[in-house]
Design brief:
By secondary structure, the protein is α+β, with helices and mostly antiparallel strands. The protein contains 9 helices and 12 strands. The protein starts with a strand and ends with a strand.
Length: about 300
C-alpha cells in the first residue's frame, strides 16, 4: 500500500470511491463533476491530488488546492476496510506540506470557493470530523443549506412569470445570460461582490445551457443568479442584487426564474448553499433547512 498522485486516468475510480464513502450525498458524484471541480478549475494543483493505493486499487484520497495564500482541503475519503491505518492522516499531512511550500498560511476544510462540493463538513460524517480535530482543525463557523423540491405539483414557471410582472412595474426584467455577457458580468460581479463570485460566474459560461440569469433595469445590469457552480447538480448560488435595485423584488424574480429553469430541465431538487437570509428563501420559494455544516480551518505557519 502506498500514497501517490491521482491522475485523470483514475477519474472513474475516484468517483466510485467518493460515492461509496460519502454516503450522505446519495451517489451524486459524477465523473464530469469530479473532473470539473478537481481538475479544470484554476486553483487545483496536480501535487495536491493524493491517493492511497492497495495493490493498484484506489482506496483513499485527500485532494486540495490553493488560492493565493489560502489552501483548501477540497474532498477526502477512505474505504471503510482501510480505515484506522493512518492513511488519511498521512495524506492530509502530505497535502498540508505541499500547500505550505506553495505559500499557504491556512487551509480551509471543504468550503474553499469557488466550486466546493459542500460549504463545510456535515458532522454526521463522524470519522471525518474526528480526523480533522485530531489533526488540529478548529471549527470557525456553522452554516446551513436549504432545499426546494422541484418534482412536485408546484409550477415555478407560473411563480416566475408572476414575479417578473411585478418587477416590470419598476422597469426591470430577467433574462438568461448570453455568451456576449461574459466579460461584463464578471466585471460587474467583481465590482459589487468582491471575492470568488466573479470566477464562479465566469466559469458558469462554459456550461450549456448557460445556467445564469441576469436582471436588467433601465438598460443596466442590476442582479444575477446562477446554479451548478457549487455543490452538486441543482446547487443554487451565488446570487446578488445591486443596492440600487434592492427592495423591488428583483432577487425573488431571479430565484424563481432559476428554479423554473432547473424544473424544466428535470431536476428533482434545488439545494441552496451557505444560506445567509434564511427567511428570504423560506418566503420566496418554500425552502427548508436540510443540512447543518461545520466550517473548519487550520493555520499552517
Amino acid at each position: 500500500m502506498h500514497i501517490d498522485l491521482i491522475e485523470e486516468k483514475h477519474l472513474h475510480d475516484l468517483t466510485d470511491l467518493l460515492n461509496r464513502n460519502c454516503d450522505l450525498e446519495g451517489d451524486r458524484f459524477t465523473p464530469a463533476l469530479v473532473r470539473r471541480r478537481l481538475w479544470d478549475y484554476p486553483f487545483n494543483l496536480s501535487q495536491a491530488r493524493l491517493g492511497a493505493f492497495d495493490d493498484g486499487r484506489l482506496v483513499g484520497t485527500v485532494i486540495g488546492g490553493l488560492t493565493q495564500s489560502q489552501g483548501t482541503l477540497r474532498v477526502f475519503a477512505v474505504e471503510e476496510s482501510h480505515r484506522r491505518r493512518g492513511l488519511a492522516s498521512r495524506m492530509l499531512g502530505q497535502l498540508e506540506e505541499v500547500l505550505r511550500r506553495r505559500g499557504a498560511s491556512e487551509i480551509l476544510a471543504l468550503y474553499g470557493a469557488p466550486g466546493y462540493f459542500m460549504p463545510g463538513l456535515d458532522p454526521r460524517y463522524t470519522a471525518a470530523l474526528c480526523l480533522l480535530q485530531r489533526q488540529g482543525y478548529e471549527r470557525t463557523n456553522v452554516v446551513v443549506n436549504m432545499a426546494v423540491p422541484l418534482n412536485g405539483r408546484q409550477s415555478f414557471e407560473a411563480l416566475a412569470r408572476s414575479s417578473e410582472r411585478r418587477i416590470r412595474r419598476h422597469g426591470a426584467h430577467v433574462r438568461r445570460a448570453e455568451p456576449t455577457d461574459r466579460s461584463s458580468l464578471k466585471a460587474w460581479v467583481s465590482q459589487h461582490f468582491p471575492g470568488g463570485w466573479s470566477l464562479e460566474a465566469d466559469l458558469a459560461f462554459d456550461e450549456t445551457p448557460i445556467p445564469i440569469w441576469v436582471a436588467i433595469r433601465n438598460a443596466r445590469l442590476v442582479g444575477f443568479a446562477l446554479y451548478d457552480a457549487d455543490l452538486f447538480t441543482g446547487g443554487f448560488g451565488p446570487t446578488g442584487v445591486a443596492e440600487e435595485a434592492r427592495g423591488l423584488g428583483v432577487g425573488g424574480a431571479l430565484m424563481l426564474r432559476t428554479l423554473a429553469d432547473m424544473q424544466a430541465r428535470g431536476y428533482g431538487e434545488c439545494e441552496i448553499a451557505w444560506v445567509g437570509p434564511v427567511g428570504f428563501y423560506a418566503h420566496t420559494c418554500g425552502a427548508r433547512i436540510n443540512r447543518t455544516l461545520w466550517q473548519m480551518s487550520k493555520k499552517l505557519r
